[in-house]
């Protein structure tokens, strides 16, 4: 998984002329790399231990730099942060470095090559930790949000000029008001309302409640409560939410606005709504990179252990709720690699993972723990059901060999089974018992099923 994530980020760091020279694993990965590289969003990749930060070409271009004009040391990156924003930005990043959060977002100013400053929104996620759970690598995106801040100033200076400008801005610029009796209204809406909500500015200014029919039902409560909180505390409003567009389906929107209380007690916002559907797709791809084993498309060890922890908590909360963990180890896998090569070994791993996936229920989970070892957690299942599951895997492998040219390679697997126990202090304790059972299966002659 780590190599796969590194490869994806490496593609982003190449110059345009060099991208075609890198051999990506598949056409699918080429599309992922191209989507990130051409989205207009800069991507960065930081090694927490070494202090190295790598930037995509689009990230450098955002500040007016070419590929060779920015170094990779984090200390250099700090010098580009506006002095007034430095302490705040550092505190946000430190929370992630200290392991207090995995995902973070911060808006601040960055110095461009020509000495001017741009407002940017940086979002990041911890994608790799060491054995002690300390973050060692973060990946994220940086987006230019200068337009939003500039437009906020223009609203105060010249309303007529604002109308001309905002109608050309991607998104919907607005002025809205919460009246003292609790009703909301729009006093200004730019032409971008048609792109954002498929409603005209006139429709929204006549009836602001029309938005309630457009916002996704699952997000409407959060939308309304976030506005109420902004009005109550007079703090900036910021929300990512979904809309349901007629004939198009769901799309993502991001809203941001600054509130001001008027003399009569009502609250006035100036803000902008933008389409972030493409960014959400990119973030979803990054999430897959952080949680999936690239070869087998099963969960990687880190993501699987999170699922196992959740299942253990369910066992501990609900008396009598059964759950079982199974450890699988492909027998004689080293001999397969030695005789046929690693490409056939990879085919064997993919064949086994596909066999596992066919047998899983919606509530079950499988992961590659490393090498030729795999794990499965069966929810609401007992040991006897786990034995049946393991036997089905063994039977399926026996009748469906790996096909490589004229060769037919029949796989065998040893299985260790253990119940999740409410007294387990961690998921590792449950996993350890199934691993011991697996060792007994290997020692007893392989291609066996043993229970702890």
TrEMBL record:
Residues 321-452 form the GGDEF domain. GO terms for molecular function: diguanylate cyclase activity. CDD domains: GGDEF, PAS. InterPro entries: Diguanylate_Cyclase, GGDEF_dom, Nucleotide_cyclase, PAC, PAS, PAS-assoc_C, PAS-like_dom_sf, PAS_fold_3. GO terms for cellular component: plasma membrane. It is an enzyme of class 2 (transferase). Coiled coil: none annotated. Pfam families: GGDEF, PAS_3. Its EC number is 2.7.7.65. PROSITE patterns: GGDEF, PAC, PAS. Its cofactor is Mg(2+). Residues 104-157 form the PAC domain. It catalyses: 2 GTP = 3',3'-c-di-GMP + 2 diphosphate. GO terms for biological process: cell adhesion involved in single-species biofilm formation; negative regulation of bacterial-type flagellum-dependent cell motility. Its main location: membrane. Residues 53-100 form the PAS domain. SMART domains: GGDEF (SM00267), PAC (SM00086), PAS (SM00091). It is found in: Cell inner membrane. This is diguanylate cyclase. It comes from Pseudomonas tohonis.
